[in-house]
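Entry under discussion copied across for reference:
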Amino acid sequence: MRNICPPNSKSIDIPVENINYMPEISRFLGIVVNMYYDEHNPPHFHVRYNDFRAIVSIRECNILEGTLPGRVRGFVAEWAELHQQELLTMWESKNFHKIEPLV
């Protein structure tokens, strides 16, 4: 079980495997990148890696919330910098699609 807070709702507990309301936009090296359909500013995406979770700023490519191992943080930042404009466009348009993985 994991306590999560979807947009415009109260905090709830649901099994991690039932978190299906965030489209997966990329997956590489065991890293899963998702983005909410209806989310608050600043523009960001969500990252899962094993038991680690983080929210990453699209503009600054830094962690806003949560933690990731150092090496994974570096891979995510590199991927985000390569696809920054595409991520911002996706955030603004809500036209989600798969983005090329880092490797």
In short: The helical segments are 70-82, 84-93. The first strand starts at residue 2 and ends at 4. The chain has a mean pLDDT of 84. The chain has one domain: 23-103.
